[in-house]
Every structure is written in C-alpha cells, then in structure tokens.
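Pinned message: reference record for Aspartate--tRNA ligase
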Amino acid sequence: MQYRTHTCNELRLTDAGKQVRLSGWMENIREVSGNLAFIVLRDFYGYTQLVVEDEKILQVFRNLNKESVVSVTGTVRERASKNPKMDTGDIEVVPDSVDVLGKCRYNALPFQISRSTEADENIRLKYRYLDLRNPDVKKNIIMRCNVVSALRQAMTAHGFLEITTPILTASSPEGARDYLVPARKHPGMFYALPQAPQQFKQLLMTSGFDKYFQIAPCFRDEDARGDRSPGEFYQLDMEMAFATQEDVFAVIEDVLPPVFAKYGTYNTASAAPFRRIPYLEAMETYGSDKPDLRIDLTVTDVTALLGKCGFGPFEGNIIKAIPVTNFNATRKQIDKLIADVEVVSGNKSYWFRLDENGEIVGGIAKFLQENKEEIISALNLKPNTFVALSAGSKGAAQKTAGVLIKKLGEMCPDHMDKEKYEFCWIVDFPMYEIGEESGELEFCHNPFSMPNGGLEILEKASRGEVDPLSITAYQYDLVVNGVELSSGAVRNHDPEIMIKAFELVGLGEEDVKSKFPAMYNAFCYGAPPHAGIAPGVDRMVMLLAAAETIREVIPFPMTKNAQDIMMGAPGTVEQKQLDELHIAIVKDEDEQLS
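Predicted structure (tokens):
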C-alpha cells in the first residue's frame, strides 16, 4: 500500500533492520533532549513507538498537535528498554522521513483519547469520531461486526434466506409510537418507518418462503433506557413456515450459545435447552417477566401471614417477602436500598431483620412481635437474615419485589454470580391486559399471536364464559441476565381467529381489514402455520461486552433525549422543504412549536 508497508501492531523483533512505512495518529510525544524524542503512533490495529534522533524530523513533529495523522518511513530496531504491555514493545522505528497527511488544527482536545470513557457522555457523543479512536471503545464496535457476521453465517447454515424488507411503509398499531415520513407526492399522507418487519416477514411466509431472516433496522419513538436506544435499533429478525414454538426454540438454542461462548466477556453460559418459566410463575417467583437467574433470591407471598399485623400499608393489600441470608449491610445502605427501589418501582418497600440472637429487629419489627415465631417458621428464617417486603395491588407488589431482588442481588455477592450468562424462556404470556392509560382491554404483547385454545377459547370469551385476561398465547421472550433479548410468537395465520381476537379489544372485521389489509387478504389466500422471533442485536452485544449501557456498543448513538448532538438532529429545515411536503408549523398558545 502507498501509505504503509505494515500496521502499527504488526512489527516484531524479527523485523529488525527492515525499512518500513507506517501511518497513523500521533498519540503522544515525549522529548528527552534537544534532538531526541519518543513518539507513540496509533492506527486501527495498535501502537508503535518512534524514536526521533534527527533535529529536522523532530521539528516537523514539534509543529504538530496530538492526533495529527502522519506517515513515516524508517528503520526497525530492537528496543533497549522493552515494553511488555505493547504487542510491538520489543521494537521501535527510527524515522528517516515524515509526511503530514492530516493536521489536527486544535491545540486542545475535548478529552484525552485513551481516557475518553471518563468524559461526560454528551461530550463523548458530540465528538464521537474522537471517542471511537479509543481502542477500548472501538473494540465494542469490532465485536458488534463479528457478532453480526457470526449470526448471518449461523442463520444461513440453518437454511434461512436473508431478505430485506421496506423501510418506508404504512403506520400500524404495534405498541409504540411511529416515526412518520410525509409523502411529497401525496399531500396530507404519511409513510411510517417500521417498528419491526412483523407484517412483511409474515407475508413472506404466505408467499411460500420457508425460512427468512435479516439484521433488521427498527424504528420506535420511545424513551431511552440503559438497555434501549431511542429512535432506532437492530434485531436478528427471523420467521419459519410450518413451524411451532419448539422449532423456534431449537434454532435459537443452536445459534446463540456458540456466539456467547466465542465473544462473551464471561466464560459460563446456560446450555441448551434453556429453562422455561411460565409468565405467571415468573411474576410470582421473581416479581418480573425478565428474571435475572444469576440471583438466587425469590419471592414468597406473605399476605395471609402479615396482612393483619397492624401495619397500615399492609391492610387490604397483597404482601410479598424476599428473605436474604448472610446480609451484612449497614442501616445507611438499607435506607439507600429502600429509596432506590421507590425511585425505580414508584412504590415504597419495607423491611425487618432476624438478628444473631433470633430476635426480629429494625424496620417494621414492632408490628411483628406477636407473630414472631410463626413468621420465623413460615419463612424458614435463620439468624442474620434480612427480609425485604413489598405491598399493594398484586401488580404493584410483584413489580416492587422484582426491583428489590435486582437491587439486593447487586448488594449481596453471596446471592449473585455476576460473571456468567443465564438464559431462560418466559412462555405463556397473557393474550390480553387492561391498558394503564385506557382502562380497556388491550393486547398484552403481539396482536398477531395465536391464542392457546384457538378460536374456541376466543368465542367463549366473547360469550362471557371465559375471562379474556385468563387467555394465554403462544408468545415467548428470551431473557438473559435480566435483560429481555427477544420476543416472539407462533402467529395467528387464520383470518377467522384474527377477527375474533381483535373483536375482544373493540375492533371489528372492517377495522382489521383497513388496518392490516395486506396481511388479512394474504391469509385469505391460504397461509401456513408460522412462528418467529427477533433477538436484539444491540442488546446482545451489550451483554457480550458487559457494557453498562447500550450506547457503548452502537457506533453513533443518540443521547437519552433522542438527539444526535454530533450531527445536530433533529433540526430545523428550510421553508421550501416544508412547502414541498405540504407541512405548516404552527405555534400553540404558549408560543411553543407544536
């Protein structure tokens, strides 16, 4: 290559005496005397030390700021003082000439490249191209590339075809807000960016394709979380014709373990078949449909035991308890635990402790003295056991208990083996739920899922013979270390069952036809049974890298507030563009753009 004969991580002691050409960024310069300086040159692959012994060449480097891009030609020689921390630590290069390829015009950088992860996140994202120069940041993106490649190879080996689906499509009610795109040629009408390729992949099954997959971009106008990026994300989207839930599980349990074994930070992972936990059992036992099975704590219902102890918040409510043995936290740490749980769950939690003498102390202990022996026996408490408690409606008590388990696991190394990957399937999700905002019956997860019991159970529900909330569906989530890696389902491929399922949420046949015309019509031409799933690529790489947030494994992520502060998105556009799209921006009464 014109600019280099070797990379900055390639030269070894066997190359001593060779004339070479290297190119990269000047990371550091350290002058020892008037005509001697040590320079660290960095490229994508690694580092090489340069030793400048020529005054003329040294002057070139003196005139450069750090992070300038240079190309040097010189001779390799053995280092007198070797550096075992560098792959190239046995050698150094003495430059004969230097060419400046890209001068850094700023004297000061927004952060030190090698310590960019310590900088404020917004500054890192604004200067992401500098942040990515840090090898520790770059390695996550390299891992992402390798993981995607491995997933593609594995899916192809299983007979799946990679097929891309449209980005501009129609808006459909899939659980999150759409990103809308105005249609210039159709005034007043909009495309939507796909929340997922859900309908397209099902239509591929009706088209006669047997196995489909793609590394699919998905767009949802959602708020950010540590494991969710706002705006867009990628998933390993797959669908199989003539397939059952078992067929999907078999593929995923064959594809994912080798990827986690090869690229995972931790050496231990669940072996197939993964544990299966019904949704209701997960909520009762772990207080969550995303249990972290690395934590050995579980929930016990103590409503009958503590409901009449005289403590006001317990009266008339469901009460859950989580006993924690060998608990050595201070009162300050306990207070922080209770406060943190309330922030996350929105509900208060409570506690007491069985001390070394077998006495119930602390927290709500004074309300428990009369039933002390019964409580100790029922919960099988041993000395130095802490008991965390939640109370409220069933859902609130479960949710709070789930947050308590997570926080307690993080506090107690004896109860959490962090350095491994624990997989499980959550199965038998409810088909319907009561919406928090609407107060009406809504689909719990995917509206295109096949209900357990098929048409018969839906007809019974419509006649009032069965509670719709008791209907479960062939819906399943794959959970890893308390993170929902993917959701999937056996699809509802029968138009008659589809219409009946939507009738229960107040949508009639005409609504189904108008909202999902392509899918409804396609199913009327004969559709095979089919099932699928879509593991999240971003979350997968986050887990493999043991990263704190999903933003650490995305090349150019948005901020938590869904802004790209590097590119200035979202931003304003010219009036001409708005006119072409037949869009007018109006101000509300408070003079705010709306």
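Pinned by admin. Summary line: The two ends are 54 Å apart (CA to CA).
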